[in-house]
Write a structure and sequence with these properties.
By secondary structure, the protein is mainly alpha-helical. 51% of the residues lie in helices and 7% in strands. It contains 17 helices and seven strands.
Length: 415
């Protein structure tokens, strides 16, 4: 039977701490697991084993996503369903999907918080943390209290939930802990999934919006050399189609200057460790080289990178090593905010609105979309983007079938 508890507690720390977790340092967690049914500790150990596998073999982003989903699922099983995984059936998984669609208010927070706080030699629960996060619009006024009852997961979030739970069951089946996967069976019948046949809009900046972003970054760097980093990050992410993770330091990869390299024909390339743990080389256009030289000059380096050079591509402001994804996102967001203010003042809110919504990933989409408009060969663009097939590039950026359909439908008559 579920214990009476209105607010859940975090079950798993970051991967670096998970590997050597000592319950003596996590007294809140130990007490929580010991307070429940005998199978709680067994299920927690299954989750730890699964997440250790994910952390070793997948990206840091995948680990974080799977950790959050595994944690939510186990907490629901502990505190609401009061039923071990081997007894769960398809109907139970669909009930869990309903739970995720509208979780209790006490299970929702409005910002990213650390799960544990280190105090007096122990990792204690962070009271601000909750399993679900209500995504607030940018520029939300601090005095406006968010209504947590309005939480609804996106289709992408719901898909990620099923993906993680199915993977968790598959792992346990492979290890012969369990002998069925009700999540796999339940997914097609989840009533919250919407079959989407809509025309997808690429989340990108227009030519005019990009010009405001670029002008802000350039003016900041011209006026204050400490903003050379911002100019470089903005131009690199847009021109080289980079995901923010591909420019950031990660536990298993640090982007360094020698990853820029020149072939025997004089062409420049950038070696990237990307999504799916794949290495690829991106073409570096001549127009970008001036910004690379400018940034290297600001850092006191030679104009062009050399083989064996181990300086991080984007170094931390303080300390050693490369910047993290969060630090890079803050740099981009600062430029976006200033560009939004400038464009709003010059051209009005309607034209500037997308800059208010934009994230750092929009720079990748913007650069790729502009290349499509320029007429670049789809095969070459697809390889620079790191897509597994040209079909993906076409679906996301070109949308050939939709363009043909739109053209064929323009001339139909009303009367």
């Amino acid at each position: 039977m579920a214990i009476p508890q209105t607010k859940p507690i975090a079950l798993y720390p970051a991967f670096s701490e998970l590997k050597s977790l000592d319950f003596g340092e996590y007294k809140d967690l130990k007490q929580f697991l010991e307070s429940g049914e005998s199978w709680w500790q067994n299920h927690w150990a299954w989750g730890r084993e699964f997440l250790s596998y994910v952390g070793r073999n997948k990206s840091a982003h995948t680990f974080t996503r799977f950790r959050n989903e595994t944690e939510r699922f186990l907490l629901w099983g502990f505190l609401f369903k009061a039923k071990p995984m081997e007894q769960l059936r398809k109907a139970d998984i669909l009930e869990y999907a309903d739970f995720c669609w509208q979780p209790p208010v006490a299970w929702i927070c409005t910002a990213n918080h650390e799960k544990f706080v280190f105090r007096n030699g122990y990792y204690t629960q962070n009271p601000l943390w909750a399993p679900f996060k209500l995504q607030l619009p940018k520029k939300t006024l601090e005095e406006q209290l968010p209504d947590k009852k309005k939480y609804k997961p996106s289709q992408q979030t719901l898909m990620a939930t099923f993906t993680a739970i199915i993977a968790f069951y598959k792992y346990l089946m492979n290890e012969e802990y369990l002998y069925g996967n009700p999540a796999q069976i339940a997914k097609p019948d989840c009533r919250h999934f919407i079959k989407d046949a809509q025309v997808k809009e690429v989340r990108r900046l227009s030519e005019s919006q990009w010009q405001y972003v670029f002008n802000v970054a350039l003016e900041l760097a011209d006026q204050d050399r400490s903003y050379e980093r911002s100019l470089f990050v903005i131009t690199a992410m847009k021109t080289l189609f980079l995901r923010v993770s591909e420019l950031s330091e990660r536990p298993n990869w640090t982007p360094v200057m020698s990853h820029f390299w020149q072939d025997s024909d004089g062409n420049w390339w950038l070696k990237i460790f990307g999504k799916g743990r794949k290495l690829r080389d991106i073409t570096v256009p001549n127009s970008f080289m001036d910004y690379l030289k400018r940034y290297r000059q600001f850092r006191g380096l030679s104009p062009l990178p050399s083989s064996g050079e181990n300086h991080p591509i984007v170094e931390k402001i303080r300390g050693q090593g490369g910047m993290t994804s969060r630090q890079l996102i803050r740099i981009v967001q600062h430029v976006f905010d200033m560009a939004y203010d400038n464009m709003k003042q010059a051209e009005g809110e309607d034209n500037a609105r997308k800059l208010k919504e934009a994230s750092s990933h929009w720079l990748r989409h913007t650069g790729a979309s502009m290349e499509v408009e320029r007429g670049r060969a789809l095969k070459d663009l697809s390889e620079d983007l790191g897509h597994s097939s040209m079909a993906t590039t076409d679906t996301v950026y070109v949308q050939t079938e939709n363009r043909v359909r739109a053209e064929s439908g323009k001339n139909r008559k009303v009367n």
